[in-house]
Amino acid sequence: MTDLALEKPRSQWADVWSQFKTHKGALVGLVVFASLILFVSIGPLIWTKDPTFINPDAATMIKTRNKPPSLEFPLGTDQLGRDMLARMMKGGQVSIAVGLVAMTISILLGTLVGVMAGYFKRLDGPLMRLTDLFLALPLLPLLLVMVLLFRDPLASAFGPEGGTFLLIVAAIGVTSWMQAARVVRGEVLALKEREFVLAARSIGTPSRRMILRHILPNVVSPIMVAATLGIANAIITESALSFLGLGFPPDFPTWGRLLFDGAEYIQNYPQRVFWPGVAISLTVLSVNYIGDGLRDALDPRIRGR
């Protein structure tokens, strides 16, 4: 028996990874994003300073506020003497968590609407008009109205931090599913006319089984690409809300909130806005490059070239 016959066939995901590795920007983005995840998750276990600690002694607090980077405070301190490195780690946890949870909500909604509109012809018109309606709404004013209306009730029910987190991720998720829905709908419309779908329908396969076994596995590629780009959009949106002072409470740092707090001191202490700005930029750029790499790797017309 020849060596060729003994060689095991490569899996689809091995081919995807092989193609992904050829995209240098995507590899760099993956390394940067993984480094940021490690920074915000493992960093607090090493750097154990409390990000909300304010020295109770007024004289000491005044002496330690707005300090430049040093061995004691590697990223300096803020206007109340709080350690910026600890606040960057805590803020990164919140910002990345908001991006992941809001992306999950938007992808689930977008996939549901896209599959229903593409597979069931009678639902296509109403669901696409609903999508067009959401696309026509101005995003930022709508988010501001939602925050102003629901922030206090949710804060009283789940606490200031928990209520704000639920509100922000729900608001971003509910207002950012439309692009994913349109992409998934287009893929489903094309899949409906493929031979294997027509064959499954000819033997009486029910719609639920058809969608779960034949349609959804073949729209994973656009869903994964939309998910990576959705993380970046959610982080930018949360940062914009926090920068406008309508995000999380002042004592609950996010990267956007750190930017908002440091904007007043940008001329005298530019490092106050430099570090959160760099963190947001690196996160968004890395996720976008990962999305580009996934789009190329998951496209069978490109994979294998």
**Number of helical elements:** 15
Main sheet properties: none
Number of strands: 0
| SSE succession | HHHHHHHHHHHHHHH
List keywords for this structure.
mainly alpha; about 75% helix; disordered N terminus; elongated; 15 helices; about 0% strand; about 300 residues
Provide an overview of this structure:
- With 305 residues, the protein is mainly alpha-helical.
- The chain has helices spanning 3-6, 12-21, 24-41, 43-46, 58-64, 84-119, 121-136, 139-158, 160-174, 178-191, 195-202, 207-215, 220-243, 255-263, 271-298.
- Helix 3 crosses helix 6 (84-119) and helix 6 runs parallel beside helix 10.
Brief characterization of the structure:
With 305 residues, the protein is mainly α. It has 15 helices and no strands.
Q: Topology of this structure?
A:
Elements: H1 3-6, H2 12-21, H3 24-41, H4 43-46, H5 58-64, H6 84-119, H7 121-136, H8 139-158, H9 160-174, H10 178-191, H11 195-202, H12 207-215, H13 220-243, H14 255-263, H15 271-298
